[in-house]
Design a protein that fits this description.
By secondary structure, the protein is α/β, with parallel strands linked by helices. The protein is 50% helix and 12% strand. It has 20 helices and 10 strands. Strand 2, helix 3 and strand 3 form a beta-alpha-beta unit.
């Protein structure tokens, strides 16, 4: 692909001066239209060293209102960033709706510079490419205008530019030993770029290759690419104005889901108070020790708790964390998204709260709200919640690929037990704050929620991030099962680590 490019393309100074004013005006207008339509924009610049990424970004932003964009210069991961999945730092740098983010190098560093330098192992490359494609598909499905631009020059031109930069003290710092090595081994690095382009050139996020030897030609082509992409995204937005919800609470038609998985839970399972006290203390002490091992071995753990209102999530989380070092875990209670969170992809707020290596993050309610409450109550469209199963599976795969233990608990009680607990809360002044009118309203949609939960469990319980249904009519039994399951998962992981040496 790259070796076949015609890098002799040029544009005269006169042609450049003639074309640029109208291009700049169009781009400025498109920025305002994207802001008015709440369209977020990400523009990723990749290419060979000295191909002119910084120069071309500088030219591109001249047409933009500086209040509406941000430029991110992506360097090697910091020590802090190494403790997270590699896409974490890009999820956290994502623009809200109506704004533009420009990346001087991007998430592709993982499979380019880091691969060339040996920081990314060869066996990690296919997994990284899969994660990148999933990441880009999630963003574009959610309405992101994602524009990927690759600046190409040849080995001779690159060497010439490096020499020019190195002649001046003011610019010599811009050429590193790694840059010179990439020039010496240009063919090897080009092959890596070829593989990356072929593996991530998709319908939803295509690559635009720019012949960058002539800087004026490159600037005009980049403006044209960005303008055409934004115009297309605006047309798509204007022709795809679906209602907020196509069919809230629609019943599941899949025969596979005819019988509720939840109905198979044995809710008669129980422990006496004495059995509970004996078991819970032993388990808490075990969790305390295992938590220390997670930190020592830098293994992150993500635990998600879902379940019926009054199902016992809070009680289970309290007993789980009671003996854990508070410096090594955090509990996130998930509420309705605020204005800032609604301006981003629905997974954005959860990526921001993921644990770094060695820490534990517990979510009281999770990203699964997308396929439960948002689906049933009509807060998202049918298309949005249907694609969420794959998006969630892909996110959890990224987390486990990065070394995390991911587990999800569904706290199951029956409708009669829920009513009993609701009434008990109402009668107890110290617990009345736990019960709201919304809780009673949700009971009226019990069957719809049960259908949605059954589908969720089937479609998102995976070998790498399983669902555990916890029989919860007896709180004692539920708490013990949660702790036992967490302890067993950590012990299995530590055993695997030991075998790997």
């Amino acid at each position: 692909m790259l070796e076949k490019l015609d890098l002799t393309k040029t544009l005269s100074k006169e042609e450049y001066k003639e074309k640029m004013p109208s291009l700049e005006a169009r781009l400025g207008k498109l920025q305002r239209e994207c802001k008015d339509r709440n369209i977020p924009v990400m523009i990723a610049f990749e290419g060979y060293g000295a191909a002119g990424k910084g120069l071309q970004i500088g030219k591109l932003i001249q047409a933009l209102d500086p209040r509406g964009f941000e430029v991110h210069a992506v360097k090697r991961e910091t020590e802090e960033e190494k403790f997270y999945p590699f896409l974490w730092r890009f999820w956290t740098k994502m623009p809200p709706k109506g704004r533009i983010a420009i990346y001087d190098s991007s998430w592709y560093r993982k499979v380019l510079s880091d691969r060339f330098d040996g920081r990314t192992k060869e066996e990690e490359v296919p997994q990284a490419l899969r994660s990148i494609c999933s990441f880009e598909e999630q963003l574009t499905d959610d309405g992101m205008a994602l524009i990927k631009i690759f600046l190409a020059i040849d080995k001779k031109e690159q060497k010439k530019r490096f020499k020019k930069l190195m002649k001046s003290k003011e610019t010599a710092w811009r050429v590193s030993e790694g840059d010179l090595k990439k020039n010496e081994e240009f063919a090897r690095y080009q092959a890596m770029n070829e593989e990356m382009l072929a593996g991530t050139d998709t319908d939803f996020a295509p690559w635009h290759i720019v012949e960058a030897v002539d800087k004026r030609f490159a600037a005009v082509k980049i403006y044209t690419i960005v303008i055409e992409a934004l115009e297309q995204r605006i047309r798509d937005a204007d022709t795809d104005k679906a209602p907020v919800s196509d069919s809230p609470g629609e019943e599941v038609k899949d025969k596979l889901l005819g019988e509720s998985i939840l109905s198979k839970a044995d809710l008669y399972l129980s422990y006496t108070k004495e059995e509970y006290k004996e078991r819970i203390k032993k388990l808490q002490k075990k969790i305390e020790k295992l938590h220390g091992e997670l930190y020592r071995r830098r293994i992150p753990m993500i635990l998600g708790f879902e379940g019926w209102d009054a199902g016992g999530k809070g009680g289970a989380i309290k007993r789980l964390t009671e003996y854990m070092d508070p410096r090594g875990y955090v509990v996130h209670p998930t509420a309705s998204p605020n204005d800032i969170e609604r301006a981003h992809h629905y997974l954005w707020r959860f990526w921001n709260d993921m644990p770094k290596a060695g820490h534990v993050t517990i979510f009281d309610r999770t990203w699964y709200g997308r396929v439960m409450v948002e689906r049933i109550e009509g807060f998202c469209s049918k298309k949005e919640w249907q694609r969420a199963y794959k998006e969630i599976n892909d996110m959890e795969r990224d987390l486990t690929d990065a070394g995390a233990i991911v587990m999800k608990f569904w706290l199951q009680i029956d409708k009669d037990e829920q009513e009993r607990r609701f009434k008990a809360r109402q009668e107890n002044p110290e617990k009345q704050w736990k019960i709201t009118e919304e809780d009673w309203r949700n009971r009226e949609k019990w069957d719809q929620y049960e259908e949605a939960v059954s589908e969720m469990l089937i479609r998102t319980s995976t070998s790498y991030a399983p669902w555990i249904v916890v029989e919860g009519n007896c709180k004692y039994y539920a708490r013990v099962k949660v702790l036992e399951t967490v302890a067993d998962a950590i012990e299995r992981r530590l055993e695997e680590e030991k075998k790997r040496g």
